Amino acid sequence: MRPARPGDAPALLALSRPFVHSGALRDRPRHVYAARAADFLVAEAPDGALEACLALRVHPEAPHGGRASAVLYNVCVARHRQGCGLGARLLRTALAGARAEARGALFTATTGNARLFLRHGFAPVPASLAPAAWARSLDPRRNARVLARAL
Question: What strand order describes the sheet that includes 105-110?
Fold first, then answer.
């Protein structure tokens, strides 16, 4: 596992594309992946191919007077690597990083079954508890569930 680099943008886009086509992820152009590369943690195969990614973005606003929060987004594991614990390892690494930065809570939104997040202590919460700018960016047509975990 390593932090992503701007040069990883094409691979991040390719890794995300099947999830965009299924409706699990929002479509993001390549330049967004390049601009936000510092948000991403990636799992790399021995041949250098990206097999999984997730992004963690800090939101400095503190909802309800609490500590700043962070948001997980764009969580992807290549189909051939699903079910082997790679997503869980990425998530544990992101949780440790968020804890080290003393974030108050970690939020995510998902249109899927949320098993990975639920197994790692996330629970459904109202979007009003999340950072306001991020909550406003959620597309209500996607009917995503907002989940959170205290850190």
Answer: 2-3, 40-44, 50-59, 69-77, 105-110, 145-150, 123-124
Exposure b/e, 63-100, CB count within 10 A at least 16 = b: beeeebbbbbbbbbbbeeeeeeebbeebbeebbeebee
Q: What is the pLDDT along the chain (151 residues), one digit of tens a residue?
A: 999 999 999 999 999 999 999 988 889 999 999 999 999 999 999 999 999 999 999 887 655 556 678 899 999 999 999 999 999 999 999 998 888 776 788 999 999 889 999 999 999 999 998 888 899 989 888 889 999 998 8
Q: In 23-102, where does DSSP find H-type helix?
A: 30-35, 86-100
Give the chain's length. Answer: 151
* Nearest Cα residue to 142 out of 117, 113, 109: 109
Pairing, β 105-110 against β 69-77: parallel
Q: Residue holding tokens 């080290």?
A: 100
* pTM reported for the whole predicted model: 0.88
- Helix (H) and strand (E) counts for the chain? 5, 7
Locate 18 and state its tokens.
């099947």
Q: Read off the amino acid at residue 40.
A: F
